[in-house]
Each structure stands twice: as structure tokens, then as C-alpha cells.
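Query form — protein Restriction endonuclease type IV Mrr domain-containing protein

QUESTION: What is the three-dimensional structure of this chain?
INPUT:
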Amino acid sequence: MEDQAVEFENLVGNILEINNFIISPSLPETNNKFDFHATLGNEKWAIEVKFYRTPRAQAGLIENAAIRLNHEGVKARVTKGMLVVSCYLPAELRLYLETSFNLTFIDRADLINWSAKNTEILGKLQSILGIPSDDLTQNGDTTSEPKLNETPLNQAPPQEDSKGTELCQELKKLNRGKKHWPDYEKLCVRILKYLFPNDLYGWHDQKRTDDGLNRYDSVCRIQSTTEFWQFIVQHLDSRYVIFEFKNYTGKIKQGQILTTEKYLLEKALRRVAIIFSRDGADKNAVTMTQGAMRESGKLMLILDDDKVCEMLHMKERGEDPTDYLFDLADNFLLTLPR
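ANSWER: The C-alpha cells for Restriction endonuclease type IV Mrr domain-containing protein are given below.
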């Protein structure tokens, strides 16, 4: 998704420029954590761009992005802030956001409206967001000019979400091995419930153990609210996902993958497993996951500590951690050998 997100960000810069903003990228040496500095008339703007695979707005992520932008804009001493998102903002959510934050919110419908004066840019926007030519107005009002917030940034914005950082630090500090497996399992479940509060439900913890280090730990039903989970349900025909938590001191091996594969059953609509492993998997284990997909259509994704922490930080930044899982699955399938 990274290339698509960068492409979207660059296009947003072009859209702003054709609407009279003077844009300059936020340079690393300024230590500002937003995408663009911009000037409109005599006002200086901090502008953050968020690309989501899912067109449906996820309020919690947008709130996190808004709080972070407000903090960073105040630090940069700009007067105005703008959060640009690739999804549609329903009227009620937009009203809530505009009431809660002194920011301008620009959604997909606004971008279509702003792009209408340049057919080339509008075409690029349609291509990046997958909008059919005859469907430009779906779920959004593209007939009125986007409204810019007249109120300066709030100098005392709400506290930023730091739970992802705290969970990552807790994960990094947790010792490995059989003795600490129960603590690892509990922490992983907390991480999952923080990352995907609206995507997974009906959690069921299993009691079966194998070697004492890992279990068929949790299984839950999928709520297909984002593109990744929709892909799992619609294309892999899996209504449930298994999570395994392997607190090994090194990389997991093919034996652990074989154990997990046995839990995946087509007739039980359970064909996907996400495996937490502190250091990931060795080459033979990866080869076995490829064979399971190629021969039986069973998808197993392996998350080491670094991948888990990246998703936790994404959630804090107002980005969608399920997009990260989508990219992992996409790369896995694109590189699947014969």
C-alpha cells in the first residue's frame, strides 16, 4: 500500500495547488509530523493526508489523526490545520469532527469536487481510489465547494493516543520462553483488541496445549468492515480467523506451521491463521506456509515483534492496521511460487 499512499499524497498536493494553496513538503529536519506546509492568502496551514483502502470512514482512526495533527500544527506555529482522508465522511461524523476539532476535514467527495476543474487530475484520483466514472457522487456531496474552517488551531488539544506505544514497549520487554507464555498470550489478546476493536468478535479461547509453548490459542468471527477482512471472507471463504501466540526464543520452524495448518478446516469456514512469533519464521517454515496456500488455499500470516509494533504505531497515527495485513497478504500471494 505504501506506493499507493505516496501516490495519493502527491496527488492531494496537486489538487491543493490547483485550488490556490501554495504547497511545500514537510521536511525531515523541521521535525514536523505532518505531510505539507501550505499557505493560502496570509494563513499558514499544516496538512496531513491519510490513505485508507476502505472507503467507509473509521471514526477512531480519524480522531487519532486529528488529535495528532492538532498537536503538530501547534508545535509548528501554523494557524490552520487540514486533515485529508481518502474515505467518505458521513454528515453526522463530519459534524462531530468539526465540532470537536478546529480543523478542516476534506474527504473523498471534497477531493472529487476540487479536482473537477482539471480532468487529468480527476482521472488520476479516480484511478487511485478505484472510483468508476459513472459513480463519482456515491455517498458524498460533490456539488458544493469544500468549506474551510475559519477557527485557528486549538492551543490545548486532547491528549494523543499513546496506548500503541505502551503496548509495543510492554511486548519488547516481555521475556521469551515457556515460563512467560501465559503473559505473552494475554498481551497479544490485548494488542488484538486494541488494533481491531470493530473487526473481530465472539472471541473463544482454546484450552488444548501441544508443547507448552503455544496453543491453538484464540479463534473469533470476522466482521467484514475493512477491505482486508472482506477479502478474507469473500475470497478465501473464511468466516473465522485463528490466532496463535508462539513465545519462542528463536524463529518458529516448519513443525509449528504444520500444527497450525491442521487447525484450518475448509468445512468449518476457518481457513486463515495469524501467527504471533517473536522473531518470525525460518525459511522452511515460510516454505510450508506457501505450500499450504498453494495446495489447500489456507492462508497463514506470521507477525514478529517489529510487525506488531508497526501496526500499533499505525493505529496511534490514525492509519488502518488492517491495511498493513492486506499488504502482507498481497505480497505473500503475489510472490507465491509454483
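ADDITIONAL NOTE: The beta strands are 22-25, 36-40, 43-50, 80-85, 104-106, 200-205, 218-222, 240-246, 272-277, 299-303.
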